[in-house]
Design goal:
With 285 residues, the chain is mainly β. The protein contains one helix and 21 strands. It folds into two domains: 164 residues, no CATH class; 120 residues, no CATH class. 3% of the residues lie in helices and 45% in strands. This is KIB1-4 beta-propeller domain-containing protein.
Length: 285
């Protein structure tokens, strides 16, 4: 089971790959495996980690006008603990739709008490994944390009998101060859939050097709520390933390709680590659 850094338990890097071949698999969130089965999202624990193998079924998916609810980008969950009475789950679809369900546990029975479907108006959020921020107690999406961060919840910001505009600072000086390389890459942005330090980071992930075989490989990573004023400061030093980028979820741990990881490293676990990037070793000129 994937554990957040607040748990302070050594992270088991041996992923349960036996379930990854399932065609209905979406990915994972906060230690739960997520699948799309017969038009419903199912969250469940891995049998090898929890003998009781709890399952949570979300309500049947509904498509808003001019939206689709068949292709899921990812799923984000507010808490990993089955003992939590209150949990919220967000399903981000490719395109404008974001669905949020509020769940309450009563004697280990899951009851869906409120569910909403949101049509996002700004196209910059259409292809981005959603993440849960414990610090903000909201679901957050970084827009394409990394200039905007939108936040949604079931209270004040379910119709109109809270928007944060980012200002990039401390950008490294790059050679012409490096700039041209980055311009030629497919770029995606990912938000991560450390529950230990309360810090928020945005990772810009640059990938390009390999020259030797038909697969995408990482060419560079840029990490920005984001504060409450929207300053996005480039850094190669994230302290004792390390970051994980996966197909559906990005998260942050203290390096001391993760076997075989060192501070200021990013472990990439993607479809085409599994590698570790040393942020301090990256050269831009």
């Amino acid at each position: 089971m994937v554990r957040r850094d607040g748990d302070m338990i050594p992270f088991d890097l041996d992923s349960p790959y036996d379930f990854m071949e399932a065609p209905e698999l979406i990915g994972s969130t906060n230690g739960w495996i997520t699948s799309l089965v017969d038009g419903r999202v199912c969250l469940y624990t891995h049998r090898g980690k929890r003998p009781d193998h709890e399952r949570i079924w979300l309500p049947a998916l509904e498509s808003l006008p001019l939206c689709q609810a068949q292709v899921v980008t990812n799923v984000a969950m507010s808490s990993s603990s089955p003992e939590e009475e209150y949990r919220v789950v967000a399903v981000k679809f490719l395109g404008p739709q974001l669905s949020i369900s509020q769940l309450i546990s009563r004697r280990h029975a899951q009851v869906e008490v409120e569910g909403i479907h949101i049509r996002i108006s700004n196209p910059c959020f259409f292809s981005s994944p959603v993440m849960y921020s414990e610090k903000e107690d909201m679901f957050r999406i970084v827009g394409s390009g990394g200039h905007l961060v939108g936040s949604w919840d079931l209270r004040k910001h379910k119709d109109t998101p809270k928007i944060q505009r980012l200002q990039f600072q401390n950008l490294p000086e790059m050679s012409k060859a490096k700039r041209e390389l980055l311009y030629s890459c497919n770029t995606s942005e990912h938000l991560v939050e450390s529950r230990t330090t309360g810090e928020t980071f945005m990772v810009k992930w640059y990938k390009r097709t390999s020259k030797t075989i038909e697969r995408m490989e990482t060419k560079a990573l840029m990490v920005f520390k984001i504060d409450e004023e929207g300053n996005a400061v480039y850094t190669q030093d994230i302290g004792d933390l390390c970051i994980f980028l996966t197909m559906t979820e990005s998260f942050c741990f203290p390096a001391c709680s993760v076997r075989h990881m060192r501070p200021s490293r990013v472990k990439i676990m993607d479809v085409d590659e599994i590698t570790i990037v040393d942020l301090a070793a990256q050269k831009w000129n």
